[in-house]
Amino acid sequence: MTQAVTLVKRALFTIGAHSEINPATPEMLQIGVDYLADLLHDWDYEGIELGTLTPANQNTDIGEPTGSRHAIILGLAVRMAPVARVELAEAVRGEAQQAYRDLVVKFEKVYLPDREPSEATASGAGNRRGSLS
């Protein structure tokens, strides 16, 4: 589990808007937490069920599942670049797109249609449809 502010700092570090020498302002960190909440809501709406908590403040543990942290950080970095007034590198954008595609494969809801056996289904020990016994 990772605190929301840690994810925001890593995202800002990825785009060069945060470091130990030049840390992000408290306002930028709060904006990042708000953007993180929006990102997680958008992904949930798109059918990517991570099961995370919505960050209420900077110290909220969001409880992201294993294998999703990198995609969250990169997705947040892409969203934060205009706010931080940083030009996003194409390498970061490409890596974020690949991480998102991997996340979709791992966590997207899969809807299975109800299965209805046809008359052509073999009648065996598990299928008594159409038999008199």
Describe this structure in words.
The chain has a single domain (4-107), classed as Orthogonal Bundle (Hypothetical protein yqbg). The chain is built from four helices and no strands. The chain has helices at 4-14, 26-45, 69-80, 90-107. The chain is elongated and about 75 Å long. The N and C termini lie far apart (56 Å). 24% of the residues are buried.
Anisotropy-based shape: elongated
Number of domains: 1
What is the tally of beta strands?
0
Mean pLDDT comes to 88
Order of helices and strands: HHHH
Q: CATH fold name, please?
A: Hypothetical protein yqbg
Helix content bin: 40-55%
- Using the 3D structure, state the CATH architecture: Orthogonal Bundle
CATH class categorisation: Mainly Alpha
Structural class of the secondary structure composition? mainly alpha
| Number of helical regions | 4
End-to-end distance, in Å?
A: 56 Å
- State the low-pLDDT regions, or none: none
| Percent of sequence in beta strands | under 5%
Q: Indicate the multimeric state.
A: single chain
CATH superfamily: P22 tail accessory factor (Gp4)
What value does the Rg take, in angstroms?
22 Å
Q: Largest sheet, described in full?
A: none
